[in-house]
Design a protein that fits this description.
Distance between the termini: 85 Å
Strand content: under 5%
Helix content: 55-70%
Radius of gyration: 24 Å
Number of helices: 9
Order of helices and strands: HHHHHHHHH
Structural class: mainly alpha
Organism: Streptomyces marokkonensis
Shape: elongated
Mean pLDDT: 79
Largest sheet: none
Keywords: Membrane, Transmembrane, Transmembrane helix
Number of strands: 0
Low-confidence stretches: 25-31, 157-161, 190-214, 217-224
Protein name: Secreted protein
Length: 224
């Protein structure tokens, strides 16, 4: 084989490798970011804001969450467990009318316990539990974040720095969406219909579901 042919083959191989590398980078770059944005939804935007608009840093954080918690398999609840959690949530909502701060604190503890029962990290590891929940329930996890923040604002801050009643009400309403996601039967639980799902066992849009499940207005606090 002549020297010219060898050089030509080397050039061709090098060109093929360069093209393959470019295509791989393009596929891994935008598609990876787009996939994270689709998966995390509002959590993606929060991560970007937390990193002052640095999307690469936000995507590294979210990709790390997926790597740590993406393989987690949620444990289905037994029917008796589900009923107990639902009864406790109903009692928590009713308690809000007379003791809003205590009700929000109970919602925070209840979500931590429910997530633990479904196989997420223990509630004593709040940040890790929240990260795992964000991977599997990204569109509703902020409700848990809000009730936890409201619950601990008065404990960690000054005596008069606690959240107002309206903020507590909003946090509890939003947390209801995550509660319903975690407590409802999964696809492998028998798929039985329950309140908060449609006839196929799917969850309706959050606004409609929250209004149907619980509307705690300022004028009619016990309205359902």
């Amino acid at each position: 084989m002549s020297t010219g042919v060898i050089i030509a083959l080397i050039v061709i191989v090098a060109a093929v490798l360069v093209v393959a590398a470019v295509l791989a980078l393009r596929a891994r770059g935008p598609q990876h970011g787009g996939s994270l944005k689709r998966r995390f939804g509002p959590e993606y935007d929060r991560a970007v804001a937390r990193h002052d608009g640095d999307t690469k840093a936000a995507e590294r954080e979210l990709a790390d969450r997926v790597e740590r918690h993406g393989s987690l398999h949620e444990r289905p609840l037994e029917p008796a467990e589900r009923e107990r959690f639902e009864a406790r949530w109903t009692a928590t909502q009713e308690r809000f009318v007379d003791s809003p701060r205590e009700a929000v604190g109970e919602a925070d503890r209840l979500l931590a316990e429910l997530a633990g029962a479904r196989g997420f990290p223990d509630g004593g590891q709040y940040e890790e539990q929240l990260a795992a929940l964000s991977v599997h329930h990204a569109h509703h996890v902020d409700g848990y974040r809000r009730v936890h923040r409201v619950t601990h604002a008065r404990v960690d801050g000054a005596q008069d720095s606690g959240a107002g009643t309206e903020e507590m009400r909003e946090s509890l309403v939003e947390a209801r969406a995550l509660f319903e996601d975690l407590v409802r039967p999964g696809r492998h639980d028998g798929g039985r219909h329950r309140a908060g799902t449609d006839g196929d066992g799917h969850t309706p849009p959050r606004a409609a579901r929250t209004h149907h499940s619980w509307s705690l207005s300022k004028r009619h606090p016990k309205e359902s």
